């Protein structure tokens, strides 16, 4: 299967923090046929579905567009804890086909907020602060993957120098390290693994004081439209990933996506930078031969949902 086909069937839609409203107790009346009544053997028309609250309509539209993968939310207790489960392709009408390369992630739980703390994108949270433990906001490894224990750091916090080791040039590491210091980097949480298909994934969550600080850092030399500001280890020429589907993006979290262009060496590298309030997420995937688009999009989407 080509990467283009994988792109069209990949990733996972954004998450809603609220369960949809209960349907009315009164039975819903199906819409009247336009011309003649359906014959007895024709399937009954589906009942109309109540419109969701206004604040959920934007995300609902993304769900309707993104039929290649579905994320289902189930309340797990009280507060802001939610379970995320992955619907199999055979459960989606018209998608009962062979696997498209998505990974089998375990159930993902968004950690509850401390009592009285607002969500990162609540109107009352002007700083875009994440009050939950940053380490609990890291995406877990998919089933069957081998964890990269070196990224655990000390007590779950990674040293800045270990994050900067992702970048190829010594002068870039020095310059970026100074920018992180100047912008008041608080700490870094990281996780990495090698999946069964040989893809090496690294996720870094860098937390600052406010969302404005993250935007200032990102809009400086770090992120550029056509290529990243600093080259990663093992990556040749990286360009903006124009094929990253809009349906796999989170409306609240701006993302910039790059892919190493041909010709590349023994491995291909994909990378994403997500601005999630006071957190800058850096996601890197590399794989011998070619880094597949589908698991990259899936990983980026799920990590975005955890930070949203």
Concise description?
The chain has 308 residues and is an alpha+beta fold.
Encode the helix/strand succession as letters: HHEEEEHHEEHEEEEH
First-last Cα distance: 32 Å
Average pLDDT? 78
Number of helices: 6
* Radius of gyration, whole Å: 21 Å
Residues in β-strands, percent: 15-25%
Classify the secondary structure makeup into a structural class: alpha+beta
Let me know the number of strands: 10
Order the strands across the largest sheet as they lie in space: 4-5-6-10-9-8-7
Basic shape: globular
Sheet with the most strands, sense and barrel status: 7 strands, antiparallel
Give the helix proportion (percent range): 10-25%
Low-pLDDT ranges: 1-33, 42-52, 54-98
Oligomer: single chain
Structure commentary:
By secondary structure, this protein is an alpha+beta fold. 20% of the residues lie in helices and 19% in strands. It contains six helices and ten strands; from the N terminus they run ααββββααββαββββα. It has helices spanning 3-8, 54-65, 160-164, 170-182, 211-222, 293-307, and strands at residues 71-75, 82-86, 108-110, 146-147, 187-194, 200-207, 238-240, 255-260, 267-276, 279-288. Strands 4-5-6-10-9-8-7 form a seven-stranded antiparallel sheet, with helices on both faces. Strands 1-2-3 form a three-stranded antiparallel sheet, with no helix packed on it. The longest helix is centred in the C-terminal third of the chain and has 15 residues, at 293-307. The two termini are 32 Å apart. The model is unreliable at 1-33, 42-52 and 54-98 (pLDDT under 50).
């Amino acid at each position: 299967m080509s990467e283009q086909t994988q792109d069209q069937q990949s990733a996972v839609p954004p998450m809603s923090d609220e369960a949809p409203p209960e349907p009315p107790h009164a039975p819903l009346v199906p819409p009247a046929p336009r011309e003649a009544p359906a014959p007895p053997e024709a399937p009954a028309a589906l009942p109309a579905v109540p419109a969701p609250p206004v604040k959920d309509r934007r995300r609902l539209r993304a769900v309707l567009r993104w039929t290649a993968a579905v994320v289902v939310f189930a309340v797990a207790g009280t507060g802001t804890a939610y379970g995320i489960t992955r619907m199999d392709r055979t459960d989606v009408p018209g998608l009962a086909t062979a696997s498209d390369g998505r990974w089998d992630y375990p159930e993902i739980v968004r950690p509850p907020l401390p009592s009285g703390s607002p969500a990162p994108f609540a109107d009352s949270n002007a700083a875009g602060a994440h009050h939950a433990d940053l380490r609990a906001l890291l995406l877990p490894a998919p089933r069957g993957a081998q964890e990269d224990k070196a990224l655990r750091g000390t007590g779950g916090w990674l040293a800045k120098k270990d994050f900067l080791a992702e970048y190829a040039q010594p002068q870039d590491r020095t310059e970026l390290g100074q920018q992180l210091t100047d912008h008041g980097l608080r700490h870094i949480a990281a996780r990495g693994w090698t999946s069964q298909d040989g893809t090496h994934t690294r996720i870094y969550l860098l937390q600052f004081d406010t969302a404005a600080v993250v935007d200032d850092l990102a809009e400086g030399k770090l992120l550029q439209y056509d290529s990243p500001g600093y080259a990663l280890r093992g990556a040749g020429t990286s360009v903006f990933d124009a094929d990253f589907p809009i349906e796999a993006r989170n409306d609240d979290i701006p993302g910039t996506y790059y892919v190493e262009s041909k010709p590349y060496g023994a491995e291909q590298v994909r990378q994403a930078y997500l601005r999630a309030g006071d957190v800058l997420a850096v996601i890197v995937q590399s794989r011998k031969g070619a880094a597949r688009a589908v698991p990259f999009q899936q990983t980026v989407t799920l990590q975005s949902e955890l930070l949203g």
